[in-house]
Amino acid sequence: MRFVFRRLGFFVVTLWAAVTLNFLIPRLMPGNAAIAMMARYKGRLNPQALHALEIAFGVNAHQSFFHAYLTYLGNIARGHFGTSLTFFPDTVAHQVLQALPWTLALVGVTTVMAFVLGTFIGLVSAWRRGTALDGALPPLFVITSAFPYFWLALLAIWLFSIKLGWFPPSGGYDVTTTVGWNWTFVSDALNHSVLPAATILVTAIGGWILTMRNNTITVLTEDYVRMARAKGLKPWRIMWTYAGRNAILPNLVGFAMSLGFVVGGAILVEFVFNYPGVGWMFLQSVENQDYALMQALFLLITVAVLLAILAADVATAFLDPRTRERG
Amino acid sequence: MSLPSVADSVQPAGATVGSGPPEEATRRTAGGDVFRAVAHNRKALAGVGLLLGFVVLALIPGQIAPDDPRAKIYTPGLGPSWHHLFGTTAYGEDVFSQLVWGTRQSLLIAVLVGGLATVIGVVVGVSAGYLGGTTDGILSLITDVILVIPIFPLIIVIAAYERNSGFFTLVIVLGLLGWSYGARQLRSQTLSLRTRDFLEAARVRGERKSYVIVKEILPTMTSLIVASFLGAAVYAVLFAAGLQFIGLGDPNSQSWGTMLYWAENNEALGAGMTYWAIMPGVFVALLGAAFALLNYAFDEISSPALRLRKLETTGVDAEQETAVPIRPPDEKNILEVRDLSVAYASDHGPVVAVDRVSFELGRGEFLGIVGESACGKSTLVYAIARLLGAPLAGEITGGQVFFKGRDMVTLADKELRHIRWRDYSVVMQSAMNALNPVLTVADQMRDACEAHSTMSKREIEQRSKEVLRLVSIDPVHLHSYPHQLSGGMRQRAMIAMALLFTPELIVMDEPTSALDVVGQRSLMVQIKELQERLGFAVIFVTHDMSLVRHFSDRLLVMYAAQVAELGLTRQVFAKPLHPYTTGLLEAFPSIHGPKEHLLGIPGQPPDLLRLPPGCRFAPRCPHVADRCRVERPALYRVNGELVRCFLHEQAEEPVAVSTEGVA
Amino acid sequence: MSEPLLRAEGLTRHFRVGKLLSSQKLHAVDDVLFELGRGEIVALVGESGSGKSTIARLIARVYRPTAGEIFFEGRPVSALRTRRQRLAYASDVAMVFQDPYSSINPAYRVTHPIRRGVVLHRRDVPRSKRQEEVVESLASVGLLPAAQVAAKFPHELSGGQRQRVGFASALVVKPKLIVADEPVSMLDVSIRIGVLNLMSELREREGVSFLYITHDVASARYVADRVLVLYAGHLVEEGPTEDVIQRPKHPYTQLLLSAVPDPRAPLGVSDAADVGEPPKVIDPKEGCRFRARCPLAIDRCETETPRLRPVGRGRLAACHVAQAD
Q: What's the predicted TM-score (pTM) here?
């Protein structure tokens, strides 16, 4: 338990760092992005909202830097992220919550799938070392893990959408259908998500297959695996409980570290497919210089990554009794 | 007093005491080694090839693509043709030229960012690891925070405020954010290095801390630093392309990512300008793949476990098998090993780790197998137990092992699994390594029970507690994890596990060497007691003869993969026949009797890859004759003992029991 | 009486252990007192966890003592401040390590540590003569032909050869004392004697003292003039080697001696399997640390920590029950 608390503490620090970065970056950048933005907002917002923005971007010279910072932190804590420029006059918070489920469904599911599948394939590949399977897979996945996400997305669109016409090339759903929990809508949404999901899956899985394979090979040289053989245990049990459970531990750590990459790639995939998720919205906000929305989305993405890492840490503590004691 | 000469015995290092075949060197210590390793690794070659290709494109783009990439002079939207290999863009530029000229920027970004990230990573990681304390705390926190914050969105945020940032801004930002993964790796490598004595030796010598970091630590981490560089390079290429693709780079720059941006803006895919839309991505992927392949190959080169070597058997034993008629094994003996040979593949060719070893073991008998490093004793017993494989990586290349009348060598895996643990079990050297760290002792006993019997959960628990009591462990520890037990307890827990089914044979590979002398002694006494009470046979492997002196019935002395002497323990100790045995006995200073000056045995055991032509012990033997250097002695029977030495050729029973294989 | 080369008084070293904010202290070495003279070989005998390696590192200045002092040639080691002073100490006190596989930097040839020793401590050797000196030192520890060995990397030498390189690196600085931390434990049995003989020979030839740290009493008897027995951070017995071995006073020494495997000894008294292990000494109370395993323990052992007291000529023992001569 102590271990989990320590990690939580670390996450709070990281979150604080992300929030502070959000605060600092516009102030550190040359040029007056804030002023430009203010100019565009004028006339469109009520005075309070305008004032809040002034505070958030430090345009109001009456406030000291530190005071502005504290106000900003207070706003964030209360969920006041401001008004979105892109989706005016909707609040940022509301818009973000609209996009969130799409991304959770797409990116969340595929990332977990990629990790689970990748780990399993890596384990089996190492177990069957020296066979054709193991000879072909690693080099193949080394190469695919270096593919840029967005390019693969383009390729997928070109092949499966334009050439073969199997799947729609963009969007999250057909705009002519009614949004809701009806079969037409859901099946349509699924249809639209196949290509983006496949793109993310194919690119993300490679790294995990490779690390799991290498970890497993190392674990297979350990004495306790030999001991398991000596005890006459069934091969799959050895592979699973002895090799797998130990080899996955460093992989879980790797999961945490590579998540940043996956998230970055997912943003690009949503962009290419015009998929209405958090990533797409994030890039829209950048395009429109809708800084309030952009900052909120950045925070959201960071929180999501932190939560995923926390989940991986809890899983590690669950699987490895030594971690629980280190605290 | 002559000091041992190294002239004829400067060889590759032997393994650590008591283990199997020699370890391969894992450090790249000479450039030549790296070069050779790279040349043999296909992935590395592919990576290098690709990279060289790109370097050429970057250096002499004019020669390869003479068209000006910016010239908008061609018909827009053309498909591929001889003149325009990949067609033209929507603005009338030649796609191929753009690709070639764009190489420069991408390669430059990869190298610059890779370099910057690696330098920062090395400084932060190594300092954190070596200096420790609060410095480590702070640096690690910063590293972890940067590692966890999603970099791509952060870069986008930065770029959002500073649109159309120049090339160098891109490099700086990417470099300043991409070092954390490498720093983490380098830090943990440095931490593990801290336990290496040579760092302490440097400090004791009086070296400054800065010297130690730069001259002692860094040179040992070259492969990690290179890997770090390659990883950062991949990251740089992909991120830069991604940024440019979404329009956050300089839209006027010459780069692949920008090409993709313009292609996307012009809906190139839908408009049939497929090559314009796809090819830049192919180039990005290829450059990334080149770095990734090199990285992966480096991983393989620097960690021998990942390399797979196939054993080429010489086929000599095949003809021997037909020549020797197979005698049925003697009923009295629980184990009969006949001409067992084991070989494994090394970087320099096949090594015979066990050379035609034969012996018998009666029921309830205690056999000690004694020898020093690389003599083959561990390989021998693991071969008998059919447990070869990584890390010993050996294969049985000949001979038979009759256990309870059946030849184990020819048994299929399934049948083998049936008799494992029930009829014979194994105790390994280090309990810390032999016990699965993520399972409790109870779990590990249970899975053995479940695999071989239909005992109920309660019965299993009963039995587990029973065997723990047998070795004087309080059953309350049953549900502990291995790391929660003390060293001695762990070792005894392993022995308890081996007794679960009260097998007829227990093979022990140096089970006491991880213990202190007092602990060793008490464990030996306990093992002997158990053996006398429960009646199982024991094969006990050790490098310490004195340990088995009072406990074993018979003794097998191994030297350089062969049997040197085999006989009743008390006989061997009273009157050792082989000069090696004599030498070994005299290499133990005693606490009893008068103090005498000892000589030990000069030189060291031979390298199994470069065996001397005659007797393997000849270079070190005090009784060596000319004949010993050219002829190989067979095993001679003397007084019921077997000894491989010409000194005993004219013995009482001049019957050569087994001969050497052909040269 | 001349000043001993090395004297330790009340030498103590504690380590903080446990979780992040714990104040638990591991008492690795407590209140150790001993002396070592010129040209003397003294063995420090103990099992793992006894504190012997910690003492070695305290003398080599890898650790600083928590309490107590080490006097080298009469001057306190803690008073060494400037780099020059510290370097001078490193010229006088060298160390040989236990693990031949990790005590030499694998990235360089074996001459590297020796050469660094020459550069740092042998101002008397001009630059042009450095290589010669290095090769010489290899020869002086029996690595022949020295010129060939000099070109090798550590992984090309065997364990015994690497240990000799370790001795050469220590010798080349012309030290007065070499602290040898279990120099033969990781070597093959047949090689050990050669290295032990080397130690004796170096003492004869060069007059250098050795503090020989080991868990093997028999090897201590073979090379050492005097022996110090360590248990759980305390020095429990001290005296001339032969005397201590033949007539041990402390019950732990007796236990240790009875457990020593000796191929030529007759089968000893069968001991009830003593399943004790040396304790991890964390925040210990008063009292003898051996009392849990001691067959002779009395009430006083529980409450009063025994101090070293004379029990014979040149003999000291820390035990309430030990009989003086």
A: 0.82
